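Worked example 2:
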Amino acid sequence: METVGILGGTGPAGRGVAIRLATCGYDVVLGSRDADRASETAKGITPRGSGSVRGATNEEAATCELVVVATPWDSAVATVSALRAQLANKTVISMVNALSREGRELVPLYPARGSMAAQIAFALPDSTIVGAFHHLPAAQMEDLDSGLDADVVIFSDNDGARKRVNELVNQMPGLTGVVAGSMSLASPIEAFTAVCISINIRHKAHSYVKLAGLSH
């Protein structure tokens, strides 16, 4: 199987993706600006399948065959820009949402190019950008016994890359890929994350997106 690197992977979102990828057999490199922190975080992740999770620098994670961007939104562009050479000619998955907390709600922020996926695509002109993993509750992602049964909305301008990521998502326990379409959908898909999190805050829940009426 491919190796998967996760930039900024020590946060809850990155850890959740890592454990589910490793559980279905992928070897995951958990990247961070601090390699020691990444190594300590990786020791606390226990997948149940044949894959593995190890910690490293973001630079090392960027050498993997497939790379996920899980950094905070305000450092995502700077992080990938510094790794442009390592990420060239690769599929890069953006799960970044630009959000701001106001009281008990999160509200979406709109970057200059309309979405974080578009910002990352502009910073990485030699990479293929795919959006995925935006609407998932991190705590349930990390807990393999949570009963998670979520749809993952996927978008990209490259059909082959969309299919590749869809196949990857469908291997991960508790997740089903749903290809939505092109990068033109990035802004509303990212912004809807604010709705999901605000609902969970208000209702003290861990809800997620499940689209009815589809034949998977």
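The chain has a mean pLDDT of 97. The domain at 3-203 is CATH 3.40.50.720 (Rossmann fold).
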